[in-house]
Amino acid sequence: MPHMPPAPATIYALSSGRPPAAIGVIRISGPRAGDALQAVAGRLPEPRKAALARLRDPSSGEPIDEALALWFPAPRSETGEDMAELQVHGGRAVIAAVFAALSHIDGLRPAEAGEFTRRAFENGRLDLTAVEGLADLIGADTEAQRRQALRQMKGLLGNRAETWRVRLIEALALVEARIDFSDEADVPEELVAPALEIARGLRAEIADVLAGASRGERLRDGLVVAIAGPPNVGKSTLLNRIAGREAAIVSPVPGTTRDVIEVHLDLGGYPVTLLDTAGIRESEDPIEQEGIRRARHRATGADVILWLEDVTLGREEPLFQAADAPIWRVRNKIDLANFDNKRNESGLSSIVFYVSARTGEGLDGLLAHLEAFAQHYFGGESALVSRARQRKLLQLTLESLDRAVAEGAAAGREDIVAEELRLAARSLGRLTGRVDVEDILDSIFRDFCIGK
After folding, report:
1. In terms of pLDDT, which residue wins out, 255 or 213?
2. Does residue 199 contact residue 171 with C-beta atoms inside 8 Å?
3. Which ranges constitute the DSSP H helices of 223-362?
4. CA distance 400 to 398
5. Widest CA span of the chain, in angstroms?
6. Which of 21, 101, 280, 394 would bridge 90 by S-S if both were Cys, CB 3.0 to 4.6 A apart?
């Protein structure tokens, strides 16, 4: 008799937030999920309908809680396996008692991080791009990030990639028919040309998607705005004013900020990381020198630099050059100066703002321009590509298609054209997780929390 692989373990975990909470959701997935539900709830409810159940410890018969029980028989469940859900009162003692009861049932064990989602992937309920979208949805901090992640989870990229793969397989079939059946009378001699036409069309579509790939990756990471300038011009005060809390130490002593301080903001639905850097000046203090070095490094890597000046002291030229980031001059402490012209000079690449970080005067204009810059920076629509892994695989697909088209221009190169089309289809298969993805699965799923 053939050797049968062992049945997968049945797993359980808390899928809601950390207790104590009003409700705790405990999920059970695997071949013994139904047995476990019957053991603790006394019966199997009607599929996909919540039922009130008195939970008991099967080993002692002691009551644990009154809860809602749900039953999702395979394959119509989130994981594609038999799956049960218990909605209990979310106290620590209740959840611990349910876990203890489940641990006494043979074949059950606690789930590992991301194991529910991994089983959904392995059972064909999600492809890899949808898994990545789910991870991004859980981690989304802003409305724009949520929209992009939800579209990925619903198949924004995965469905498109599968359509491309099917068309590639059609092109490959034409070329292989020409190779394998070239001596057959009923096989047309010219099959490579229509295959190359498909490849050219796909190449144009994928190139168009890659042209906007960086936008989706940037949205996951957020816009980085660095506040830089000489010491004691109000950088930390400005950061605290924008953040609405005491995130940085404010002191009249120059050189107080020795390291880069980060604050994460939601600006008009877009993610923004605000950096408060050390005052840039000549210093003999080795610790301050290191702070200034880090400040220069982080500022030059930012997307926007707010160069802060004390309006009472005159202009200070930026002491470094940024690669691509615009430098906006922010002239601070207008509350201390007899300053009449507080007009902001418009334009997203060259701007001067007059503000008071202490009183908040003029900050509305600065924040409005930052929000407009974020909208311009991220673009209006969600991008198809949101991760470097996706971009690299699409780039490999594009390179294979380029080589296929180039080889197809020469006679007798059908075997090479077929191989390049196979490589392109393989790259798309790796994108969605259809082929050769074992090496990346652990790195993807370990970022999930236990219970997801």
Report:
1. 213
2. yes
3. 235-243, 286-300
4. 5
5. 94
6. 21
Cβ contact 318:327 at 8 Å: yes
Phi, psi of 418 (to 5 degrees): -60, -40
How far, in Å, are 196, 257, 400, 413 from residue 192 at the CA level?
6, 66, 16, 10
Q: What is the phi/psi pair of residue 397, to 5°?
A: -60, -45
The overall average pLDDT reported for the chain is: 82
Best CA proximity match to 265, nearest among 299, 320, 227, 230 = 227
Q: How confident is the model at residue 99 (pLDDT cuts 50, 70, 90)?
A: very high
Q: What integer pLDDT is reported at residue 185 of this predicted model?
A: 46
The CA angle 345-348-350, to the nearest 5 degrees, is 55
> What kind and span of H or E run contains 92?
helix 92-103
Asked if 260 and 239 count as a contact pair (C-beta separation under 8 A), the reply is no
Q: How confident is the model at residue 220 (pLDDT cuts 50, 70, 90)?
A: confident
What are the residues facing 56 on neighbouring strands?
Answer: 63
Closest among 264, 268, 272, 279 to 227, alpha carbons compared: 279
User: By CB neighbour count within 10 A (0-12 exposed, 13-18 middle, 19+ buried), where does 192 fall?
Assistant: buried
